[in-house]
Structure formats: structure tokens, C-alpha cells
From TrEMBL:
Record-level Gene Ontology MF annotations: DNA binding
Protein name: DNA-binding response regulator
Modified residues (4-aspartylphosphate): D54
PROSITE patterns named among the record's database cross-references: HTH_LUXR_1, HTH_LUXR_2, RESPONSE_REGULATORY
Native source organism of the sequence: Caryophanon tenue
SUPFAM superfamilies: C-terminal effector domain of the bipartite response regulators, CheY-like
InterPro entries (UniProt xref): CheY-like_superfamily, NreC/VraR/RcsB-like_REC, Sig_transdc_resp-reg_C-effctor, Sig_transdc_resp-reg_receiver, Tscrpt_reg_LuxR_C, WalR-like
Gene Ontology BP term (one): phosphorelay signal transduction system
Domain Response regulatory: 3-119
Domain HTH luxR-type, residue spans: 143-208
CDD domains: LuxR_C_like, REC_NarL-like
Keywords on record: DNA-binding, Phosphoprotein, Transcription, Transcription regulation
Pfam families reported for this sequence: GerE, Response_reg
Gene3D superfamilies with a match to the protein in the record: 3.40.50.2300
Length: 216
């Protein structure tokens, strides 16, 4: 039996879920919580196999409840079941530890399928939510890439370094002193969080920084 805890501040929603889930031979609803505090308390006392968690609830919202539950019981899956599909709700919910995110307009049979899939170790999210998460990941990668932006001149030095040139050759190519090149290389190592020229060159190739800025 899959033991389910339902957390939602709307009685009608909880009752509807309970009535339908009780028709499933392999699912048992073991408790209901009308706010996040109750959800955390019942999660500890009932030890359900899975929690259906609403997002917006009084006293403690679904995100806060999910974070507390997953921190204490990392193997207790939480499925967000909500009306919100915007990133301001989706991303914090998943970061809090939810392993699934479905909208309340989901067909009952599909909800049962989702519950069973999660119990099999899968992460299931609504297609709309998937788009939001992919966009968030892309933005995070972009931020990470630009976390230590190089100046145009540092990009030029890095591009020359990637070609295997010595400090003297780089200085000659860019019409600067070797001392200036050494300073730029030191700054590059710090900003890119690398230890040597090889690591810097690999970073440059990976992130498309091998052409330099063209500054003279």
C-alpha cells in the first residue's frame, strides 16, 4: 500500500482527493493537514510514503513545510499539487526538495499514475513546469558563466595564452610589457578560479573565449 498524506487548506480539495484515492486498491490516505505546520507534524507522526502538498497555506506555506520535511526525512517524497505554474512558485518549491510538481487541473487517473511513478523513484513535473525549470537552469548557467567577467584586455591575454604563447610572446603580440601580462594572467586565474595556464586554456575553450575581444 502507498500511504498518502494530503496537505491542503481547502476542505473540498482534501475531501475530493481522499474520496478518489480511496478507490485505488494500492493507495491509503493516512492523514489530512490544513496548513504547513500540521503537514510537518503529521509527516513525523504518520511517516507517510508520499505527501501531496499545496503551495499556499496559512501558518506555514507548502514551500516552508516541504523544506522542513525533506531536511528531516530526505527519503519522504513530496509532490506539489497546486494551481500555480509561474517560476516564483515552481523554482522555490523544487529547490525546497519536492520531487514532483503537478497542477490541480490534472486528471485523477493521471494523478494516480504520477504518485506511482514517484514511488518508483521518478521525478514527475507538469510540462508547463518543465519549461519554467529549464529556463531557470539556463539563466543560472548564464549567471555562472558571467560570475567572474574578464575585461576586454584580459580576454585578449587569455586568447593568446590559449594558443600556447609565452608571456613574452603575448606581450609582443598585444604591445604591452611582460609585467602587465603577468598581472592580467594573475587576474584571470582569480576570476576564473583556475590554478594554472592549462586550466585557464581549457576554460577558455569550453566557454568560447578563445578569440579575445579584438581590443588593441
Amino acid at each position: 500500500m502507498i500511504r498518502v498524506l494530503i496537505a491542503d487548506d481547502h476542505h473540498v480539495v482534501r475531501r475530493g482527493l481522499m474520496v478518489f484515492l480511496k478507490t485505488q486498491k494500492d493507495i491509503e490516505v493516512v492523514g489530512e493537514a490544513k496548513n504547513g505546520i500540521e503537514a510537518v507534524e503529521l509527516a513525523e507522526s504518520l511517516q507517510p510514503d508520499i505527501i501531496l502538498m499545496d503551495l499556499v497555506m496559512p501558518e506555514l506555506d507548502g514551500i516552508g513545510a516541504t523544506k522542513r520535511i525533506t531536511e528531516k526525512f530526505p527519503n519522504m517524497p513530496v509532490l506539489m499539487l497546486t494551481s500555480f505554474s509561474d517560476r516564483d512558485h515552481v523554482v522555490p518549491a523544487m529547490e525546497a526538495g519536492a520531487v514532483g510538481y503537478q497542477l490541480k487541473d490534472i486528471e485523477p487517473d493521471d494523478l494516480v499514475i504520477t504518485i506511482r511513478q514517484i514511488m518508483n523513484g521518478e521525478r514527475i513535473v507538469h510540462p508547463t513546469v518543465t519549461d519554467q525549470l529549464e529556463q531557470n537552469v539556463a539563466e543560472q548557467e548564464s549567471l555562472a558563466h558571467n560570475r567572474h567577467p574578464l575585461t576586454p584586455r584580459e580576454q585578449d591575454v587569455l586568447a593568446e595564452l590559449t594558443k600556447g604563447k609565452s608571456n613574452r610572446e603575448i606581450a609582443s603580440s598585444l604591445f604591452v610589457t611582460e609585467k602587465t601580462v603577468k598581472t592580467h594572467i594573475s587576474n584571470i586565474f582569480t576570476k576564473l578560479e583556475v590554478q594554472d595556464r592549462t586550466q585557464a586554456a581549457l576554460y577558455a575553450v569550453k566557454h568560447g573565449l578563445t578569440e579575445g575581444s579584438g581590443v588593441q
